[in-house]
Design a protein that fits this description.
- This protein is of the alpha/beta class.
- It has a 7-stranded mixed β-sheet, with helices on both faces. Strands 1-11-12-10-9 form a 5-stranded mixed β-sheet.
- It is globular.
- 42% of the residues are buried.
- The N and C termini lie far apart (66 Å).
Length: 523
C-alpha cells in the first residue's frame, strides 16, 4: 500500500511471481494482476472461438483415450506438485490439455442436457463474486451479498406468483432444492398432520406416501431415502401418453393408500420434465392436494423459467398454487454453474425447519438479536437451508437479469421454444424421422431416425431400432458436428434434443438432421 515500508511486506520471493501472491501493494501487484486478468480472459475467448464453436464434443471422445491425453500414457493423475508453476504455463496447460476436450455448451448444435451457454454478465458476476470471497451463511460473512440474494429470491418468488410472505434460498442446483423441499414435507407437513411435538423421525416416517410420475427427477426419491423414509414411500404413478402426470390416477392411488391405512403426504409434479419437457397438470394436482391435505411441491427446475416470457408463461400454469417450487437458474436463465433455488409460499418455514445457532456465530446482530428491516434479525442464510458455507451465487443472476430485464430473458426462452417447434415440424414432414410428441410443450424434442423410412422401420426388430439410435448418438459425438443425448420412453430408445442455446438456428437444426442421415448411411 502507499506509504508501506518494504520491510513490512511478507516475503514471497520464493515464488517466480511474488506479485501475484502478496497483492497488498498496488504499486507492485496491480499491473501484474491486470496482465493476468487479460491473459485469463484471452484463454477463455480462445476456448470459445477455437474450440467451443468448432465442434460439439472435444477429442478424443473415448473415456480411456481422454484419460491418457490429459494425464499422460499411464492414464492416471500425477502427484501434487512440490514446486511453483508460473501462471503463463498454467494457462497454456488449460489451452492445450483441457480446452480441446470439453462438451461445448456454446456450440449451436450441442442439444444436450439442460446446459445453456452462460450469459456473459453471468460470467462477469462469477468472477467478481470470487474476488469478493463472501460467505453467504451468517450475515456478517457477506453483508451486501446476503441482500443481493434476498433481492434475487424476491424476483423468483414474484415470478412464481407468490405473495409477500414467501421466501426462498439459492442452492447448488435442483437436487439440493428438491432435498430441501422433501425436508419441509417431513419436518413441517408430516408434523402438522400427526400433531407431533417435534419433527418426525424413525418409525414415525413409516406408512407415508409421496406421489410422482414415472417422469419425475430421481432426486425426489433419493431425498426421501436420505431423509429416512422407507423405499415404498415414493409412489410412482404412470404418466399419460404425453408424459404428463394427471390428477385422476393420483387420486385413485391416494384413495387406495388411505383404504390400506397408509398416510398420503405430498404430491410432486414436474413443470418441464428432463426427458421430454412435458408439464404435469399442476392446477388439477394442486386442487387434489388441497382437498386431500397434502403438500404440493413442483419441480420446476427447467420449466419454471417459461414464466419469464409473457407469451409462453401460460405453458406453466398453477405454479403459484404450490407450497414450494424448485427453480434452476443455471438451466433456462442461462447462468454459469452453479445456481439453483427453492421458493416457499410460507417463507418462514425454512427458518423453522433449519435454524440452528452455533455458539461461534456471535458477531453483531447474531449475538445481540438487534432488529433489522427484514425480520427482526440479520439475514443469516445458513438458518434457511442445509449448507453452512455458501458462495455468492446471487451476483451473477442479479447482474445478468438486470442486464437483459425480464422481457429480454423471456425473449431467449421464446427463441428456444420456437426452435423446438421448428425441429418438430422438420421431423413431421420427413419420412425418415419421427417425434415422440406431435408438439413440444417447451424446448425439448425426442425423436428417432427410421432407417429406410417409416415403412421399412416399421418392420424392424424394436431392439434393433433402439440400438440404431444409440449408435447414431455415438457416431455424432465422434463426428463433432453436434451432440444429442438419448433417453428411454415407454421402453424404447429415443434421441433427445434439449434446446437451450439462443444462438441455435433453424439451419443448425436442419443440419443436425442431415448429419444424422449421413452418419446413418455410412454406419
Amino acid at each position: 500500500m502507499p506509504g508501506m515500508d518494504d520491510r513490512e511486506q511478507p516475503d514471497f520471493s520464493w515464488h517466480p511471481e511474488p506479485e501475484l501472491i502478496g497483492v497488498r501493494d498496488p504499486e507492485r501487484s496491480r499491473a501484474a494482476l491486470e496482465r493476468l486478468g487479460a491473459a485469463a480472459w484471452s484463454a477463455g475467448l480462445d476456448y470459445l472461438y477455437d474450440e467451443a464453436l468448432r465442434r460439439g464434443m472435444g477429442e478424443p471422445t473415448g473415456y480411456q483415450e481422454l484419460r491418457r491425453e490429459v494425464f499422460g500414457p499411464s492414464g492416471l493423475p500425477a502427484p501434487a506438485p512440490d514446486d511453483p508453476t508460473p501462471s503463463a504455463e498454467l494457462l497454456a496447460d488449460v489451452r492445450l490439455r483441457l480446452s480441446p476436450h470439453h462438451l461445448n455448451a456454446w456450440h449451436p448444435r450441442v442439444l444436450s442436457y439442460f446446459t445453456p451457454p452462460p450469459l456473459v454478465l453471468s460470467i462477469v458476476g462469477e468472477l467478481i463474486s470470487q474476488f469478493a470471497q463472501q460467505g453467504v451463511d451468517v450475515w456478517h460473512g457477506g453483508p451486501s451479498a446476503a441482500l443481493v440474494e434476498e433481492e434475487v429470491v424476491r424476483w423468483l418468488t414474484d415470478l412464481t406468483g407468490y405473495g409477500p410472505g414467501s421466501f426462498g434460498i439459492l442452492t447448488s442446483g435442483g437436487v439440493m432444492a428438491n432435498f430441501i423441499a422433501m425436508a419441509l414435507v417431513r419436518d413441517v407437513h408430516l408434523r402438522r398432520l400427526t400433531g407431533a411435538a417435534r419433527p418426525p423421525r424413525g418409525a414415525a416416517l413409516e406408512g407415508c406416501r409421496v406421489y410422482v410420475s414415472d417422469q419425475a427427477h430421481f432426486s425426489i426419491g433419493r431425498a426421501l431415502a436420505e431423509l429416512g423414509f422407507p423405499d415404498e414411500t415414493l409412489v410412482v404413478v404412470p404418466a399419460d401418453a404425453r408424459f404428463r402426470l394427471r390428477a385422476e390416477p393420483v387420486a385413485a392411488a391416494i384413495a387406495a393408500d388411505r383404504a390400506a391405512g397408509l398416510r398420503p403426504l405430498a404430491i410432486s409434479p414436474v413443470a418441464g420434465t428432463t426427458n421430454t419437457g412435458s408439464v404435469d397438470d399442476i392446477p388439477a394436482l394442486a386442487a387434489l392436494a388441497r382437498a386431500e391435505g397434502l403438500w404440493l411441491h413442483v419441480d420446476g427446475a427447467y420449466g419454471a423459467a417459461a414464466r419469464l416470457s409473457r407469451r409462453d408463461a401460460a405453458r406453466i400454469p398453477g405454479l403459484e398454487l404450490a407450497d414450494s417450487v424448485t427453480i434452476d437458474p443455471h438451466k433456462w436463465f442461462f447462468q454459469a454453474y452453479d445456481v439453483g433455488a427453492i421458493v416457499v409460499r410460507e417463507g418462514g418455514l425454512l427458518e423453522e425447519t433449519f435454524s440452528r445457532r452455533p455458539e461461534y456465530y456471535r458477531t453483531g446482530s447474531a449475538a445481540t438479536a438487534a432488529p433489522s428491516a427484514h425480520d427482526g434479525e440479520a439475514l443469516d442464510f445458513y438458518r434457511r437451508g442445509f449448507e453452512g458455507t455458501r458462495r455468492w451465487r446471487a451476483l451473477k443472476l442479479w447482474l445478468s437479469w438486470r442486464h437483459l430485464g425480464t422481457r429480454g430473458m423471456g425473449r431467449l426462452v421464446e427463441m428456444n421454444d420456437d426452435r423446438a417447434a421448428a425441429l418438430t415440424e422438420m421431423i413431421r414432414t420427413s419420412d425418415d424421422f419421427e417425434a415422440a410428441l406431435a408438439e413440444p410443450e417447451l424446448s425439448v424434442v425426442c425423436f428417432r431416425h427410421l432407417p429406410g423410412g417409416r415403412a421399412a422401420a416399421a418392420g424392424m426388430d424394436p431392439s434393433a431400432l433402439d440400438a440404431h439410435q444409440d449408435r447414431l448418438q455415438s457416431l455424432l459425438e465422434d463426428d463433432g458436428d453436434g451432440w444429442l443425448s438419448t433417453t428411454r420412453l415407454h421402453g424404447r430408445t429415443w434421441l433427445r434434443a434439449g434446446i437451450l442455446n439462443p444462438m441455435t438456428t433453424d439451419a443448425d437444426l436442419a443440419r443436425i438432421l442431415a448429419t444424422l442421415r449421413r452418419l446413418a448411411a455410412g454406419a
